[in-house]
Design a protein that fits this description.
Number of strands: 0
Largest sheet: none
Radius of gyration: 20 Å
Structural class: mainly alpha
Order of helices and strands: HHHHHHH
Helix content: 55-70%
Distance between the termini: 30 Å
Number of helices: 7
């Protein structure tokens, strides 16, 4: 998505729409009915003006991709921070209705859900090199990294990534811990 400055302004409202409109009882974005996906797309169309000549099918596909990520992350956070600790999120997230929350808790406490959670937990633990890119990914970071590299070269400072190809350099930079 271009320009890069728009990405967060676009993904934040998309996140809000998904959290408000899509019930958390859908375990997977693929299981969400088309009419509900249409509500999300319609709300994004209402809030954003797409330039003339835009490929709306591509724009819709991007919104659906973001929406799937948002739903997955929200469900994960609710499970980790509320279901597993016995807390109730209804005060913080007023759009999570008590009856939907009860169904969600029951859904997450089944033996199948616990086994699936354990399976994915083991899989996630295999990833020892977590990235620090945020929702916008490499798209926003690459230009910044290239500018930093140019500034380092112009200042005559040694390049710690000298001799490493661009793809590997980006991989390493994405996994470098943020400064505190």
């Amino acid at each position: 998505m271009q320009p890069i400055e728009i990405i967060s302004r676009f993904s934040n409202p998309c996140s809000c729409i998904v959290r408000e409109k899509v019930p958390i009882t859908y375990e997977n974005w693929k299981l969400v009915p088309k009419d509900l996906k249409g509500v999300v797309w319609g709300e994004m169309m209402r809030r954003f003006t797409y330039p003339d000549g835009s490929n709306l099918d591509k724009c819709e596909a991007h919104v659906m991709y973001l929406a799937g990520k948002v739903l997955r992350n929200f469900i994960y956070r609710l499970n980790r921070e509320y279901v597993q600790t016995g807390k109730n999120p209804c005060a913080r997230y007023n759009y999570v209705l008590p009856e939907v929350w009860e169904a969600f808790v029951k859904q997450k406490q089944t033996p199948e859900a616990k086994a699936k959670g354990e399976q994915f937990s083991k899989l996630a633990k295999r990833n020892v090199h977590h990235h620090h890119l945020g929702m916008t990914g490499y798209a926003t970071k690459k230009p910044k990294w290239r500018a930093e590299e140019r500034a380092t070269n112009e200042a005559g400072q040694p390049d710690p990534y000298d001799g490493i190809d661009e793809r590997a350099r980006d991989y390493l930079k994405a996994r470098k811990p943020k400064k505190l």
